[in-house]
Amino acid sequence: QVQLVESGGGLVRAGGSLRLSCAASGRTFSTYAMGWFRQAPGKEREFVASITWSGGRTVYADSVKGRFTISRAGAQNTVYLQMNILKPEDTAVYYCASRSSSYTPYDYWGQGTQVTVSS
């Protein structure tokens, strides 16, 4: 089992920045990659960014490229999402998730943290 706890959400004006954190505990040695997803009201959950735990390879959704940066601190079992130049359409609940290999789905999820961007 892997437990994931997100923090860092809040209310920010358009153009501002926030940094989300996700602390992992439990069987973290089996983690292949961690990712951030988001779900806006009335919409389906969508992929935001991911990072492999050992190599640090990153992938981003087109909608956040150049504005968001995912990173990890292995010693602290923590993954971050630095969000800059925030837009109202970034408003959503942001979830952290982990997967144990490149061919399995994300199988552990955090409880989510709300990000609200005002215009």
Q: What would you say this structure looks like, in words?
A:
The protein is an all-beta fold. The chain contains no helices and 11 strands. The chain has strands at residues 2-7, 10-13, 18-26, 33-39, 46-52, 58-60, 68-73, 78-83, 92-99, 108-109, 113-118. The strands form 2 sheets. Strands 2, 4, 5, 6, 9, 10 and 11 form a 7-stranded mixed sheet that branches.
Instruction: Give, in order, the helices and strands.
Output: EEEEEEEEEEE
The main pleated sheet reads as: 7 strands, mixed
Instruction: Count the E strands.
Output: 11
Oligomeric state of the chains present here:
single chain
Overall radius of gyration: 13 Å
Q: What is the overall number of helices? A: 0
Distance between the termini: 40 Å
Structural class: mainly beta
Shape, principal axes of CA atoms: globular
Q: How do the helices and strands line up, and which of them pair or pack?
A:
Elements: E1 2-7, E2 10-13, E3 18-26, E4 33-39, E5 46-52, E6 58-60, E7 68-73, E8 78-83, E9 92-99, E10 108-109, E11 113-118
Parallel strand pairs: 2-11
Antiparallel strand pairs: 1-3, 3-8, 4-5, 4-9, 5-6, 7-8, 9-10, 9-11
Comma- or semicolon-separated keywords:
mainly beta; 119 residues; globular; 4-stranded antiparallel beta sheet
